[in-house]
Recover the amino acids of this structure.
């Protein structure tokens, strides 16, 4: 993609996702993702209804009338976006590929974080960490992140979610808010890594999938290629047995994914590429508020 086209796409993404962040998500994001606690701000005179436990006895004695301590939420967070850039994300049977939706969701979260004065960092991963963008603040930084999401070409087509989580643990020693974006097509076992991440960080998993992953259409014989391994085979989608087996396998994998996220104390939302991710994010924020 040439620079002019990239800038055009970055601007288009910014206009859409920043508007969503400003008009829809700003308050909900703030409520859903808490700061590190409460920090002392100032003292003021006691008012009816104030918690007597907050009375500052030293100041009260000095002025001979009651004063209370005022606290404010320590709001600033570090938000890490762990974005899957493996080969399976470059697939879509509707208006967009999985990677397109992942980019929009990541950009929306980034702008929501920016408007709440949070730092945002990114880990782009396949079966290894392809690129690490350290957490920073500001619009210029967010636009750089979006340009990378749009234009980055990974070295590998395979996936290793566990490796990405391990890198997160190595680079983020303090608790952060981590969004794990993927289709979760990974042949390795990453359940132990999920447990570790869920225990240290406030983590959310966002699964993006295509409708064909859940249900094959009846369109006769088709050639399918595994974009991560390169394996090719023909499938007769007119066979009800094959379609049923495919649907059963999907349901089982989804049940396993949900169970593992629950055990790891990680919130999970699943969004299909022909669905509205805005509704899914709002439901997530409302659940956590």
């Amino acid at each position: 993609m040439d620079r002019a086209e990239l800038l055009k796409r970055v601007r288009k993404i910014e206009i859409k996702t920043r508007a969503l962040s400003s008009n829809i998500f700003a308050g909900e994001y703030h409520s859903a993702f808490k700061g590190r606690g409460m920090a002392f701000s100032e003292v003021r005179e006691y008012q009816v209804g104030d918690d007597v436990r907050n009375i500052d006895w030293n100041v009260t004695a000095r002025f001979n009338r009651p004063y209370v301590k005022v606290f404010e939420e320590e709001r600033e967070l570090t938000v890490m976006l762990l974005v899957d850039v493996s080969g399976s994300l470059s697939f879509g049977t509707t208006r967009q590929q999985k990677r397109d939706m992942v980019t929009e969701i990541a950009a929306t979260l980034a702008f929501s974080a920016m408007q709440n004065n949070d730092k945002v960092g990114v880990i782009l991963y396949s079966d290894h960490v392809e690129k690490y963008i350290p957490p920073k603040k500001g619009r210029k930084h967010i636009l750089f992140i979006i340009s990378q999401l749009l234009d980055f070409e990974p070295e590998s087509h395979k996936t290793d979610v566990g490796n990405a989580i391990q890198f997160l643990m190595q680079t983020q020693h303090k608790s952060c808010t981590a969004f794990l974006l993927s289709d979760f097509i990974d042949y390795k076992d990453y359940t132990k890594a999920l447990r570790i991440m869920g225990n240290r960080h406030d983590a959310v998993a966002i699964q993006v999938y295509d409708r064909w992953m859940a249900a094959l259409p009846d369109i006769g014989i088709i050639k399918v290629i595994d974009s991560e391994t390169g394996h090719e085979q023909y499938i007769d989608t007119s066979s009800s047995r094959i379609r049923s087996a495919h649907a059963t396998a999907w349901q089982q994998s989804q049940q396993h994914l949900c169970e593992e996220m629950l055990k790891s104390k990680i919130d999970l939302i699943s969004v299909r590429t022909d669905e509205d991710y805005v509704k899914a994010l709002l439901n997530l924020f409302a659940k956590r508020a």
